[in-house]
Amino acid sequence: MRKVLFLAYPVWLYVVFSLPALLLSAILYTQGVDIITINSIGAVGMVLLHMRRKRKKMTELPEMPWKRMFLITGIIMIPVATLTAGLTGKAFFNMPLTPWLINCTWSFFWISCCEELLFREFLITRMKERGFPWWLILMLPALLFSLCHRPESVSLLIQRAAMGIILGFLYFKIGDIALCISTHWVYNIILYTFQYFLPRVTTLYSASRAALNVLLCMLSLLGIVVAYSINKSKFAGHS
What we know:
The model has no long low-confidence stretch (mean pLDDT 90). By secondary structure, the chain is mainly α. The chain is globular and about 55 Å long. 33% of the residues are buried. It has helices at 2-5, 9-28, 35-52, 54-57, 66-88, 98-129, 134-147, 154-174, 177-204, 207-230. The protein is built from ten helices and no strands. The chain has one domain.
C-alpha cells in the first residue's frame, strides 16, 4: 500500500487548496475578478507548500532552474508574439488587456509550475523509483492531471490527458522540468489568447484567421521544443 500511496499526494493537494479557491471564486467573481486569476492563488499555495516540504526532501532532484525556464519561455514567445501581432494584431485594440496580461504573466506561470512539479516531476520521479512500467508512468499522471481539472466533458478529459502524456514524455525522456513548465505556460497562453480575442478577431478578420494563428503558434512551440530537446546541452549553463 505504501508503495502506491504517493499517487494520492497531488490529488490531496488539489482537494485541500481547491475548496478555499472555490469559496474565494464565489466571492470575488461577483466583483469582476477573473476566475483564472482566482484559481492561480491556489496554485501559488500548492507550489510553495510542495517546494518547502516534499520537493526539499527529494535530494535526487536538482535545484529549480528558474533562469533556464524564463529563458526558454522567452525564446518560445518570440515567434508566438510575432505571429499573433502579424495575423491578429488589430484585435488587441479597444479590448480590456489587464485581465489578459495578468493571466498570461502571473496566473499561467503559477498554474504551469504547480501542475508540472506535481504531475510530471514528482509523480514520474517516484514512479520510476518504484519500478512502474513506462506506459503506466506516462498514462497515470496524465489521467490524474486531467481529472484534477474537473473536465466538463469526455472530449476535454481526453484533450487534457493527451497534453499530460506529451508533457510526461518530455520529462520522462529529458528530465528537464524547466522545459515542461515553459511548454505548458506558453501552450496555455496561446489557447487563452485565442479564446479571449476570438470574437474580436472574427469581427475584424475571420474565424479561420484566428485558427491559423493558433496553428502556426502551436507549430512554432513544437519546433522550439524539439530543437531544445536535441540541443539541450547548449542551454545547460542557464539554470
